[in-house]
Write a structure and sequence with these properties.
Layout (H helix, E strand, L loop, with lengths): L5 H14 L7 H9 L4 H33 L5 H13 L13 H10 L4 H27 L1
Helix pairs in contact: 1-2, 1-3, 2-6, 3-5, 3-6
Length: 145
């Protein structure tokens, strides 16, 4: 089973961490691994799983923080209100943008705070992450041939 190779463990951990609110990226490691001959399909699965789970940590942190934030928000700031209105306008479907750098990580947190349905949130985040890594890998494979 090639998914047990050390590179896949590092890819999972970095993909997971990159999806949290930490300012990290995992694409560089994915591309490096592809250049070293790692399986594109296994890389896709591992990176997607790590990144999706990392985003779901954001979602659950937001979900658990909901009540605390409601108490603290006697006078919410404008940027928070704008983000909240945007999410309420576009709803849970905005999680299809969870792959977008800078925007996607806070979006998953806001989805948790606003208590978006957890299963739908998970599926939309998964689709978003799978699409991003799929495009990176497809582009790499296309350029290699």
């Amino acid at each position: 089973m090639d998914w047990i190779e050390p590179g896949f463990g590092a890819l999972f951990i970095l993909s997971f961490a990159a999806a949290t609110l930490l300012p990290l990226g995992s694409e560089w490691l994915l591309i490096l691994m592809l250049t070293k001959g790692f399986s594109p399909i296994t890389s896709l699965i591992v990176a997607t799983a790590g990144n999706t789970l990392g985003s779901y940590v954001n979602y659950f942190l937001g979900y658990w923080a909901h009540d605390w934030l409601e108490e603290k928000r006697s006078q919410p700031n404008r940027s928070w209100l704008r983000a909240e209105r945007w999410f309420q306008k576009y709803g849970v479907w905005s999680l299809l943008l969870a792959w977008v750098p800078v925007v996607g990580d806070p979006l998953t947190f806001i989805a948790g705070i606003l208590k978006a349905p957890w299963l739908r949130a998970l599926l939309l985040i998964l689709i978003s992450k799978l699409g991003r890594y799929g495009m990176i890998i497809a582009t790499f494979v296309w350029l290699e041939h």
